[in-house]
TrEMBL record:
<protein>
    <submittedName>
        <fullName>ABC transporter ATP-binding protein</fullName>
    </submittedName>
</protein>
<keyword id="KW-0067">ATP-binding</keyword>
<dbReference type="Pfam" id="PF00005">
    <property type="entry name" value="ABC_tran"/>
</dbReference>
<dbReference type="InterPro" id="IPR003439">
    <property type="entry name" value="ABC_transporter-like_ATP-bd"/>
</dbReference>
<dbReference type="InterPro" id="IPR052156">
    <property type="entry name" value="BCAA_Transport_ATP-bd_LivF"/>
</dbReference>
<dbReference type="GO" id="GO:0005524">
    <property type="term" value="F:ATP binding"/>
</dbReference>
<dbReference type="InterPro" id="IPR003593">
    <property type="entry name" value="AAA+_ATPase"/>
</dbReference>
<dbReference type="InterPro" id="IPR027417">
    <property type="entry name" value="P-loop_NTPase"/>
</dbReference>
<keyword id="KW-0547">Nucleotide-binding</keyword>
<feature type="domain" description="ABC transporter">
    <location>
        <begin position="7"/>
        <end position="240"/>
    </location>
</feature>
<keyword id="KW-0813">Transport</keyword>
<comment type="similarity">
    <text>Belongs to the ABC transporter superfamily.</text>
</comment>
<keyword id="KW-0029">Amino-acid transport</keyword>
Length: 245
């Protein structure tokens, strides 16, 4: 395994209860400073990959390694301590609380106050809106800005890898652009990002690596720009080819 691989899922089989398998031998790698974007049709298993990676769902077979250590079967809390943060689908900002209070909820496990202060400075440097609105009530921020508060909460523990489940959900195109810019800033700050997106074409324009899932397997993977340029993938999975001028 290359040393820059932060998270690796290998030959994962997973499902819910006694129901049929959702993931059928899926493998994916995420490297430091890289955004890997999972796309594919509804029900392909994209969110299930994130649940397996974060310990919310135990795989029936296969392995998960984090920074080269086998962490298969560990709980979400253990994985958080080991360097993996998961930003769930939907909105998890507490609207009545300030931005600071929301971000600090993520830092409850950081006992050392000076290291917590240093981490605050770090998230403020990654997300300028969070710094500017630090004392504001979170409910007064726009949907895209609230997403940045969720990202900051995930980054306060300074994880090696962040899992993002549909961060653009419910946002208009302009705010989606802003949110994808913030995902790129996390990557540029050295974090590995594994992202699930319905907004496949626009997410792949920002991502480094794309991974097309279908029926619980990886149908195609490679540099995101190459997937975007593939006419067959465009027609099947990316909502058709963009109109040419
Ligand atoms: N908690 C659950 N219990 C039982 N089945 C589930 C559960 N969550 C998901 N599934 C099933 O697993 C399959 C894959 O779901 P998943 O949410 O991973 O797909 P997805 O690719 O993220 O889809 P979407 O794009 O619609 O969010 C679906 O058939 C879904 O019905």
């Amino acid at each position: 395994m290359a040393s820059d691989v932060v998270l690796e899922l290998t030959d994962i089989e997973a499902g819910y209860g006694k129901a049929a398998l959702v993931l059928r031998g899926l493998s994916v790698q995420v490297r430091r400073g890289e955004v890997v974007c999972l796309v594919g049709p509804n029900g392909a298993g994209k969110s299930t990959v994130l649940k397996v990676a974060s310990g919310l769902l135990k795989p029936r077979s296969g392995s998960i390694t984090l920074n080269g250590t086998d962490v298969t079967g560990r709980s979400p809390q253990e994985l958080l301590r080991a360097g993996l943060s998961h930003v769930l689908q939907g909105h998890s900002v507490f609207r009545e609380m300030t931005v600071e209070e929301n971000v600090m909820l993520g830092g409850y496990s950081v006992a050392d106050q000076s290291s917590l202060r240093e981490r605050c400075d770090f998230v403020k440097s990654v997300f300028p809106v969070v710094a500017e609105r630090w004392t504001s009530t979170a409910g007064l921020l726009s949907g895209g800005q609230q997403k940045q508060v969720e990202f900051a909460r995930a980054l306060i523990v300074r994880p090696d890898v962040v899992l993002l489940d549909e961060p653009s959900m419910g946002l208009d195109p302009k705010r989606t652009t802003t949110v994808f810019e913030q995902v790129a800033r996390m990557r540029d700050a050295g974090v590995a990002v594994l992202l699930v997106e319905q907004n496949a074409r626009r997410a792949l324009e920002m991502a480094d690596i794309g991974c097309v899932l279908d029926l619980g397997r990886v149908f195609a993977t490679g540099p995101a720009a190459e997937l975007l340029a593939d006419p067959k993938l465009s027609d099947l999975y990316l909502g058709g080819r963009p109109a040419t001028a």
